[in-house]
Amino acid sequence: MPISAWVMLVFMIVFVFGGLGACIYKAVTAKHPVGSGDSTDGSCCAEENEGGV
Amino acid sequence: MQEKRGFWGSRVSFIMAVVGSAVGLGNVWRFPYICYENGGGAFLIPFVVAMLTAGIPLMILEFGLGHKMGLAAPMAFAEIRKKYEWLGWFAVLVGLMVMTYYGVIMGWCFRYLAYSINLQWGANPATFFNQDFLHLSSGIGDLGGIVWYILLGLFLCWACVFFCIIKGVDSVGKVVMLTVPVPVAILVIFIIRGVTLPGAVDGLAYYLTPDFSKLLEPKVWLAAYGQVFFSLSIGFGVMIAYASFLPRDSDITNNAVISSLSDAGISFMSGFAVFSALGYLAHTTGGSVSNVLNHGPGLAFVTFPTIINNLPFWASAFGLLFFMLLLTLGIDSAFSLVEAGVAGAIDKWKTPRVIVNGIVSFAAFIIGVIYTTNAGLYWLDIIDYYFTSYGLALVGILECIVLGYVYGTRRIREHVNKTSDFKIGIWWDICIKYITPAMLIWMFIQTARELISNPYSGYPAWAQCVGGWGLLIFMIVFAIVLSLFKSRDGKEI
Q1: Cα B343-B344-B346 angle, rounded to 5 deg
Q2: Which of B22, B138, B217, B258 has a C-alpha 20 to 30 A away from that of B264?
Q3: Closest CA to B382 of B305, B320, B452, B469
Q4: pLDDT for B35
């Protein structure tokens, strides 16, 4: 494979997997892990969500 | 009994469901081909730009709308203004129409799974697929009879879809924990097997070697925006419906970025599996990769069986794995399209889920019977072309206009920023109000111009009308009719 193909391969790996890694790290280390804590049963907001129905 | 709205069990199950919906057969049989056709590795640059300026912004838009309203697409648009409810219905109807033929392709996969055991497609998979398997007729008007085992496969697919969404997000959240990681694991096996085969490097060179001169061609940029738009399951109302089941404090932006990048990553990985295998096929046949290159059903049901035939060992096992890959990739996209419609109907009429699910699944199964006839492949081709090229693009354009200009991107942006770790700025408004609609309108005009100068695949005018424009117009009228029905105002049935 030519060197330019390797460059594109590295570019894509950095963009996709680097970006994914950063986002997952942010999600895991969030002070308040939104959407995955106390409110997973929807109890915090059931009324609000159903209000519009 | 009034149907109660549920919530996703966890953030992971929501992301898995979104990734499962976005990642489908197109990631395997469309992305690598589009990449090769549009400059190889150079295509990755417009692809990344399209992902950042259209894919992720649109994903945030649909998540934001669904989450803010707490409703699936039809009623979410009705909340903006009653007169836009039809747009939500049109989006889910386009998705359901796509699902009618998606189910048949999955039915083919069920059958091919069985064929893999003894490589029943024989030495000439192309002839086997068209003649022995599909019993393809002479033309679109020659329906012939129903092929019973394809009908059985279609029924199996719809039975799976019915049970996967039987309890809404509760059951979907559990199913995707299997149907998302399994195809990724199979893909990794195919990549490892592929790159260790002779000739694989030649195939990968075709895939990744950049032709930067292509970046000056507008059609390459158009292809990149088209690929991103079609690949992320945007415009079917799926993301709006899924996000409507998120708890109030959910992070919208980060979820959208993770889902979009996962989809891009799986597409990119698929390219390795496909092109390394194509390189091996070219090596064994003594031809070049461009000669064996294929896409769409041809890649899955003709080229891959040929590659499997040529594998030095465990050919049957790889055949089984390949069709298992297609089935697991397809099933979560399939039930997400149905769930978007089912959730929309439940929101409006408060009908018990099992009844709505049954009616929608049965109706779509009946429509799908046409694809099980001897002319099924022709009908599949024409409906796929019109609904993805025009129906989906039309939904995308109208969605950007209604949400960008009528409702206002600011309102959704402020809502999204309330609970998201990453705050979105004015750049997002620009993407939704200008860049995305401009690219979609350009795409729409380009495909329409091509169609006017050259009828699609040479099908007769009556077929283009029945399976194309006529069906699309019928869907718009049907969407308007659905929006005119009165909704139940929360009273128990």
Answers
A1: 65
A2: B217
A3: B469
A4: 87
Answer whether B265 sits within 8 Å of A5, measured CB to CB: no
Name which of B64, B55, B13 is nearest B408 in CA terms.
B64
B69 touches chain A (CB under 8 A): yes
* Contact by Cβ (8 Å): B227, B32: no
Alpha carbon B319 to its chain's center: 23
- Summarised one tens digit per residue, pLDDT across range B113-165 is 999 999 999 888 889 999 999 999 988 988 989 999 999 999 999 999 999 99
**What confidence tens digit (pLDDT) does each residue in B400-446 have?**
999 999 999 999 999 999 988 889 999 999 999 999 999 889 888 98
Q: Is the pLDDT confidence value at B33 over 70?
A: yes
- Chain A positions touching B210 (Cβ under 8 A) are 4-5, 7-8
Q: Which of B185, B169, B184, B213 is nearest to B5 (CA)?
A: B169
Amino acid code (one letter) for A33: P
DSSP code of residue B373: B
Distance CA B109, CA B274 (A): 17
B330 burial level (CB within 10 Å; 0-12, 13-18, 19+): buried
Contact B397, B444 (CB under 8 A): yes
Of B393, B402, B61, give the one whose Cα is nearest residue B255. B61
Closest CA in chain A for residue B72: A53
- The pair of structure tokens assigned to B493 is 């049935």
Residues A26 and B420: beta-carbon distance below 8 Å: no
CB B202 within 8 A of CB B287: no
Contact B71, B347 (CB under 8 A): yes
- How many whole angstroms separate alpha carbon B58 and alpha carbon B52? 10
Mark yes or no for CB contact A52/B250 under 8 Å.
no
Scanning the structure block, which residue is given the tokens 């195809």? B183
Shortest CA gap A45–chain B (Å): 6
First to last CA, chain A: 57
Q: What is the C-alpha to C-alpha distance for residues B456 and B87, in angstroms, rounded to an integer? A: 26
pTM exceeding 0.80: yes
CATH class of B11-484: mainly alpha
Sequential DSSP letters for A15-43: IIIIHHHHHHHHHHH-SS-TTSSGGGGST
